[in-house]
Predict the 3D structure of the following.
Amino acid sequence: MKTSRLEAFSDGVLAIIITIMVLELRVPAGPTLPDLLRSATGLLTYLLSFVYVGIYWNNHHHMFQLVGRVTGGILWSNLGLLFCLSLLPFTTAWMDQQRFATTPVVTYGLNLLLCAIAYWILQTTITHNQGTDGPLATALGRDLKAKSSPAIYVVGIVATLLVPWLGVAIYTIVALMWLVPDRRVERYLASHDLAEG
Amino acid sequence: MKTSRLEAFSDGVLAIIITIMVLELRVPAGPTLPDLLRSATGLLTYLLSFVYVGIYWNNHHHMFQLVGRVTGGILWSNLGLLFCLSLLPFTTAWMDQQRFATTPVVTYGLNLLLCAIAYWILQTTITHNQGTDGPLATALGRDLKAKSSPAIYVVGIVATLLVPWLGVAIYTIVALMWLVPDRRVERYLASHDLAEG
Amino acid sequence: MKTSRLEAFSDGVLAIIITIMVLELRVPAGPTLPDLLRSATGLLTYLLSFVYVGIYWNNHHHMFQLVGRVTGGILWSNLGLLFCLSLLPFTTAWMDQQRFATTPVVTYGLNLLLCAIAYWILQTTITHNQGTDGPLATALGRDLKAKSSPAIYVVGIVATLLVPWLGVAIYTIVALMWLVPDRRVERYLASHDLAEG
Amino acid sequence: MKTSRLEAFSDGVLAIIITIMVLELRVPAGPTLPDLLRSATGLLTYLLSFVYVGIYWNNHHHMFQLVGRVTGGILWSNLGLLFCLSLLPFTTAWMDQQRFATTPVVTYGLNLLLCAIAYWILQTTITHNQGTDGPLATALGRDLKAKSSPAIYVVGIVATLLVPWLGVAIYTIVALMWLVPDRRVERYLASHDLAEG
């Protein structure tokens, strides 16, 4: 099985997840600026989840450039990741509608943690398949960012129990940390081309 | 007509079906853990239907690797399958919102049965087209899993009339049975490559 | 501009139109069979619109196999067709929710008529571009089915003013008429291959 | 990173944005013509936003024909544009549901302005990457239409403060201005082919 159809299907699902969140935004009930401002937190949480799905799409795309063959294990761990990401519209809407109460913010953090674990499982399934000196394992190297993210989510979840807004701030910081594009795959491809050229 | 555009369209429809189910999940009305737990069955039924659509996508993809040419019959039996699958968000939501009452669980089972029949019609349309010694018929062989699934759905539907939860359990077992990837197509392709090589 | 990206975008929009109609289906309010049966007309109108979008996808795909180059005119008449088709979930839901009252059934018929006109404009834009002896004009020939459909829609709309259910029956007959696959394009391609071979 | 997957993902998101707006249309509550006419403004605003997303899809497609390589900057400014466009279903629904009150119409205008700015950022990111004599910068030339649009949006927003309907009229004029297809990219490609031929 080639990666192209798996990538196309994943792109489709990610495109839908990133877009249907806007359907959860409640259209303001009145025609005034205060009515709109009451939706402002909804817009900000939508932006946060939009950025997260964008990050996953970006990293997913980079990762699959180093995958040659799709096995049953890769296919199902990929669907596992898509399932976790598909819950984001649900947890985002709950967090916003309950005005950042403790439990919804913790749940949102757990959702982010779940996505990170699902991504890690997918990545591990691929590297196991390719061997420890395969292209993906070599490109990833020590992978500090990916290893630290789950720990920071846990910090965010604990912080939420004290001050909910602090949790949201910490989730935002992880997103900003990932906005910096991951050049490892590009570097691997470039050095590989050089070696061959 | 080439298979590529039919596959792309089917992928699009399946990606939307698998994702819009999350829109049917009702965001908890309150901010507490018990509020979330009341949505827990919704999450589990969503997971079950997600896995089923994932299985169909996977099998659909494998099957079309052995199809060379799309006829009018294949096109319309494919749309028939997509129609049956597109009812899953509807029957899933009903089953969950009525807390696994008998009739909704039976209806969900009938929907799964309908999908299996539609898939069988699509498969038969293709093999008729290719002849009994065509690539798909050869690859499928005795096809025990596909032949037993409809029977197990019927068992599940009957069991629901006694104990609704038993029906859901049986539907889940069929899903798990299919999670094991179907290697027949891969085996056919591999042996075919070998024979040619 | 190549046709591939226009086809991919159209496929995406058609896949969404055909699938989101299921979101308009109201999940039955109670857990019994009569509750489900009250949704039965919704399922049948969904099926009718599903078949119509399937027919347009099928014909659209066949037509674009004979288009080499996309002009601004083709692009915008294609978007016009997609707009008309995207109204189907709206008119379908209205027709069903108002239990086939006269005005909604007339409106649904007008929507079908609008789609047929938009398709005809798209087709004419392409043939004008290719000339009267271009591949599409040659393949279409006298085009009886396409020329009679708008007339039958008008008959259906008028019939609705007498008996609403008669209108729905006539719209269904047009759909069945189109379910028979259009072999003209295939025949053109086959004869063209023959002539070249 | 090749442009093909970024284009496919953008196409997916744009196809969803353009189609889900129809879900925001409220199905008329009664079965009569006046009930339908009460939805008429909804249909017209949907048409306006549909045309805007169509224009962006068209221009996006033309622009990326001149892009060879996707950098992190291009990727994120593209996601920025998609985010701004994904807010259109929200602002369109608000403007319509509040019957063209001043604040919602101003907000819709600001959304259009935001999209224009995001598009300009994406375009600038690409031209910076290619250099001032790169293909895109050369093809764009003086770019009068793109430079005047934001100014006209501002005029529309100010006009709304006086007469809301005037704002909507001005937004419509900008859309009509863009409906005329942009031939600069096609001209560049044609002249480039000529020079090479």
